[in-house]
Amino acid sequence: MKTSPSWIDEFPARIAELDRVHLRRKRRVVVPEGGARLQVDGQSMLAFCSNDYLGLAGHPALVEAACAGARAFGVGSGASPLVSGHSMANAALEEELARFTQLPRALYFYAGYATNIGIVPALVGEGDALFSDALNHACLIDGARLSRAHIHRYAHGDLAALEAALAQSPARRKLVISDAVFSMDGDIADIPALLALCERYDALLLLDDAHGFGVLGPQGRGSLAHFELAGPNASRRVLYMATLGKAAGVAGAFVAGDDALVEWLLQKTRSYTFATAAPPLLASALCESLALIETEQWRRDHLSRLIARLREGLAIALQGTPWTLGESTTAIQALVIGPNDEALAVMEGLRERGLWVPAIRPPTVPEGTARLRIALSAAHSEADVDRLLQALAELAPRILKMSLENLDVHCL
Known about the structure:
Aspartate Aminotransferase, domain 1, 2 domains, 44% helix, 17% strand
């Protein structure tokens, strides 16, 4: 008897299709070399791809704090926070995070992705309405899908469209979700306007400040503080989420806001209730990190100078090219190339020059907007930025010529 081929046999062909459209990803084995340098698959490189925006990931004080935490608490937490995993170190970190963000209460999670995919379904469900910016991070999108609420996806930053959707929604419970700093473009959401709409239409606002925490606002307190919406001006309509593996240099995430809202999330978030708590040694390192973020303003000042230097240099280097630089004042600078193969060619050209700037392609970004996501860090020097600018200026005409030649061949 003849049997039909199994669908499992299709995977090699499906992987080959990823290769054909230049969408197959490859992991690189990295070893930190200090500062902004990494050994990548055995090659020493200057990296512009890390979210370690303040250069704290390898800081000796954080390393020592983690070691002291391991000596005091061991390596693992052993259980869910609601069983026996809520250590003294984790409790102290939550208090420190609430103080730092100037919000009533904070809840510490083991990972950022797990935070958003858990708290969104804990807030809204079937029969409720959810409003999501089109360029939100995947964890917010997945959390929205898991919630089973009716999803309204509005064009990026289109507050008129958001207001129209809010006004038309008959749902009693409405949740607006948005990145505070958008991860692939680096632009900052209009948080005061988002909050005003939530006030007008009785909605709750969930902000993901993964890329603003530690960098924006006085003492790096984040996007809410940047817009003077923390402390005495904090609204009970805002839940503030941020990750701790980027500017803070360690790992994990937290959500902060009104005491009753945070208590509800503690009780109802499945990715909190049913997951092993983060190891206490990480909380020990994070308390040290918060102290450095708060007191070492020079890191943000230096980062601001690097951002300005890069943007000024790219404005010159990109003249005569179809490549565009996104409108961003943050550490994330998006150099939009367009075609996947062209972005990969620029990435490879930089790699040959000892620079690591990975190409970002769909589905992470929209079709036709493959790009270099240049991530700056306080660990970079001005000379590092100048080296990247020189390499891009050399590569641009060569890559564009190659693309035109390929186009001519395809048109024959």
